[in-house]
Amino acid sequence: MEVFSITEKFTKLESEKKKIILNAAFEEFADHGYEYASTNRIVQKAKISKGMLFYYFNSKKELFNYLVEYGTDYIVNEYLSKIDGDEPDFIKRYKQAGIAKMKAYAENPHIFNFLATLHLNEYAELEEELKERILEIRTNGFASMYNNIDKSLFRDDIDSKQVMRLINLTLYGYETELTNSLKDKKLSSMNFDSEWDDFNELLDLLRKIYYK
């Protein structure tokens, strides 16, 4: 069941203007949470009138719910759907997922920051239907990374679950370090060649450590 329908008037808005409004709203809710987010700051950042914002969204809550739906749809379509669940090599699959995630993040960092804030707050602001939807997406995303892995590729002297856990922890730490280094930079115009080289070197090292 669809919980919140996308506002038709906003859908028809010119794409660049829509992106400006969405980025301002994602940033505001990510920085301040639902309770302290200010529609005044959103319209100031987006350089629109408050009347225009409420022409598209009837309330702050409706805007927030729209952001949750829009953000989760973006994660599914631009990140999770790119992961090949038929790839049996865990590192190769992780590499594929990492590339998809970084491309999606480069295009819309505010969406990732917004959803990360929701997670840190344990989805306290969400209505139950949206919370269930996000948890289902997280479960499916986890499955797409860990199902159908060929564990015979791993070293025999380390439990396969531990191997995947250690690889995951290492790459999560790398991802966090990289994300922090990219804060306040215009990601859409950056050349990520050096970052990909570092990422590939790390994957090669992990393969030497944990694979046969």
Question: What's the gist of this structure?
Answer:
The protein has a domain at 64-210.
Q: Please, what is the average pLDDT? A: 86
| Strand and helix order | HHHHHHHHHH
Number of strands: 0
Counting helices, strands and paired strands, the structural category is mainly alpha
Describe the structure.
The structure is a single chain. With 212 residues, this protein is mostly helical. Helix content is 70%, strand content 0%. It has a domain at 64-210.
Helix and strand layout, with pairings?
Blueprint lengths: L7 H4 L3 H22 L2 H8 L3 H7 L3 H19 L11 H18 L1 H12 L7 H19 L13 H22 L11 H18 L2
List keywords for this structure.
10 helices; single chain; mainly alpha
